[in-house]
Design a protein that fits this description.
This protein is an alpha/beta fold and 374 residues long. The chain has twelve helices and six strands. It has two domains: 223 residues, Rossmann fold (3-Layer(aba) Sandwich), CATH 3.40.50.410; 125 residues, no CATH class. Strand 2 and strand 3 form a beta hairpin.
Amino acid sequence: MRLPGNAEGLPSWLAMLSLLLIAMLPASTLRAADRPSNGEYRSVEVCFVLDTTGSMSNLIEAAKQKIWFIASEIVDAPQKPSVRFCLIGFRDRGDAYVTRTTPLTPDMDRLYADLKAFEADGGGDFPESVNQALRESIEDIAWSDDPNVLKLVFVVGDAPPHTDYDEPQLPAILASADRRGILVNPVLCGSYVDSEKAFRGMQRGRGRFIALPQVHEQQQSTPMDQDLAALNQRLGHTLLPYGNEELRQTLHDNQTRSERMDDATVADRLRYNRATRRIAQGGRDLIEALDAGELSVQDLNPDLLPEKLRSMTAEELTAHLGQIRAERENLKRVIRSLLSQRQTFLDEHRDPEQGQFAEAVAETIRVQMNPTSP
């Protein structure tokens, strides 16, 4: 577990000295998380930089279970911000991949699908390609230039970065984050001394160091979850994809995937969709687009409609959509009631030990969204 050093990179003692000097900089010298000019953050961009080597299996499973909860906690904040997520999974040179990236997207279903595809494997030599993954999250992601957008990176892992690779090291990477106004939140899993030194050194300004000595995340179930899962299936029957074949298939796949989730995760997804006022992420639902004024019945392209609707006249289509809309609103009304009951149950029975990772991340985002927080 010794941090390596050789002639090709920085010696371990010099790398650690650099990290300590960074950590000692006063917050006033750092640009990250400047206060928004309009008084509050109305948009949030979050990138998870996730170690996907074999030792991280518990955390990866926790992320899969709780990503919808984390997203819901953001969009349910008082200012009701919009949110975009990206994901970078990383291992090390010589593994199946060094980094694998999902770009910033508002499509939570896409992010969830890519997260589900990650399996913990590889690694073994302890230091990992943390530096490369963190640098890519700062410099290669298409972050917003708007200072009123809160930009966050969560680096999640249990191993320190390589300091023997010929690549930018943490001091330069963190300085780049500062210039871009990006907050870096290191999340350390485990209790390795060398890892803690490195991860603490990533914390800058209003960034937060999160320590998780053990990760035993459990999805907390409620008496409402089974009914919500059944309602999710019924709601899916009201989906009417509008677009080309690829978009229609995406909407169908997202719904199918949601019906295979465990009941508690389905409930978290429904909560997120309720807060964003959508029943579909990553595609265009015909009724939602019509209600938002994005489309009109008279201007619809029949080739982009579901096949069963293509032969209908405008009058027939309007009547049919009215029936589907009424059915959908009834389902959403019941879902809202059950979600409210579910939240009350969770508030009364919340066990911090069941959600260490998700609760820590969600609380960090809530604090950092508040421009008056210290």
